[in-house]
Design goal:
Layout: E1 2-10, E2 13-20, E3 23-30, E4 46-55, E5 59-65, E6 73-75, H1 81-84, E7 90-92, E8 94-97, E9 100-102, H2 104-120, E10 125-131
Parallel strand pairs: 1-10
Antiparallel strand pairs: 1-2, 2-3, 3-7, 4-5, 4-10, 5-6, 8-9
Length: 143
């Protein structure tokens, strides 16, 4: 399965659109791009494999495998990147400001159901991260 995350960068946070099969799955929030610095920056653009993971803190969630110079980059629930993320990605239903959104529980649930179907059939899940193209300037974020 292939997922595409197209980002829109801001000094205070990074917002994105997560696509599956040319349809918007949800939006995402992340920390701003600060040269891939640990704990304060979103991760570099690229193609990464997603793996299922479990921890007491986040329960079932996803891990982004193979991020250069970074470990434990996760996809988990959060609505405020600055307060709740340390380099991870959070799906949200709506974007409210740079690095902020709402409805993360709902968006995360939709994403996990989709990924679970692929993993159950032993198909790898890939995430391609890039910039939101200029021709998407018509996309209006809700802030």
């Amino acid at each position: 399965m292939e997922l595409l995350l197209q980002r829109h960068y801001h000094p205070l946070g990074t917002n994105g659109i997560l696509w599956h099969e040319n349809k918007i799955l949800c939006y995402t929030i992340e920390l701003p791009w600060l040269q891939n610095q640990r704990m304060v920056s979103c991760i570099p653009e690229g193609r990464y494999q997603l793996l299922e993971r479990y921890s007491e803190k986040h329960q079932s969630h996803l891990m982004v495998k193979g991020v250069p110079d970074r470990t434990l980059i996760l996809i988990h629930r959060a609505n405020n990147a600055a307060k709740e993320l340390k380099g991870c990605i959070a799906p949200v239903s709506d974007l409210t400001a740079p690095g902020m959104g709402k409805g993360s529980v709902r968006a995360f649930s939709i994403l996990m159901r989709l990924v679970f179907k692929s993993v159950t059939h032993e198909q790898p899940v890939w995430l391609e991260i890039g910039k939101l193209p200029a021709d998407f300037s018509h996309v209006k974020f809700n802030y």
